[in-house]
Amino acid sequence: VFNADQVGIGFPVFYGALLYPSMAVLGLVTGPNWALRLTCIAAHVLQFVLVYQLVWKISRDRVKAAVMAIIVAYSIYPLTNLYSRSALAEFIAFALLISTVCAWHLGLKARTTYQKISWGVAFAVLFAMTGGTHVITAFFAVLCVGLSVVFSLLQHPERSLKIPMAVLFLSGVFFVFVMAPWLLAYAEFGSRV
Q1: Distance (Å, rounded) from C-alpha 131 to C-alpha 68?
Q2: How many helices (DSSP H) and strands (DSSP E) are in the chain?
């Protein structure tokens, strides 16, 4: 349901269970058009900044970091979602997914316990937000994110696993909580949809 005073969707369980209500609240202050624009811009900027930070931490080269962030931010698939398909939930979820992976690797690169925990919480929240924005993207991304997590942990077996395991547990709890309405609806209506 959409009119000049509201931002929403008639079947939020399947798409954007967190996205559309959040945009509706923002839309009460800014209006629906600006709520949509600000949400897309925020997701896009977040993705750009986290890719930049990760590449800079790895390479210590600001030009490489900027080029990589530009390549990721302006790749064909997300821009097609935004401008051609109008798949806004998928566009935002994809940006959050890239940000999720970057947060994980930034957490592994962090030096202090506080930074590791902060990036870990960011990872958990971003992954949950991905699920709450576009469930199907998050559902299939579990494999991608999972492989990235496993390979990054195997790359440095000497690392303590206490913080990463706590982060993964927190992420799992958030993810199941966010995915539960979709999984229940899919179990109930999946054969008829």
Answers
A1: 25
A2: 8, 0
Query: Phi/psi class of residue 31: alpha, beta or left (left: φ > 0; alpha: ψ in -120 to 50)?
Result: left
SS3 161: coil
pLDDT tens digit sequence for 150-171: 888 888 777 778 888 888 889 8
Which residues pair with residue 6 across a beta bridge?
3
Residue 2 · residue 22 · CB < 8 Å? no
| Sign of the CA dihedral with 122 first, then 57, 51, and 153 last | negative
CA angle 83, 87, 91 (to 5 degrees): 85
Question: Model pTM?
Answer: 0.85
Dihedral angle, C-alpha 158, 159, 162, 168, nearest 10 °: -120
Distance CA(178)–CA(193), nearest Å, equals 21
Q: Using the predicted structure, report yes or no on whether residue 35 has a pLDDT greater than 70.
A: yes
Nearest to 92 by CA among 14, 18, 161, 159: 18
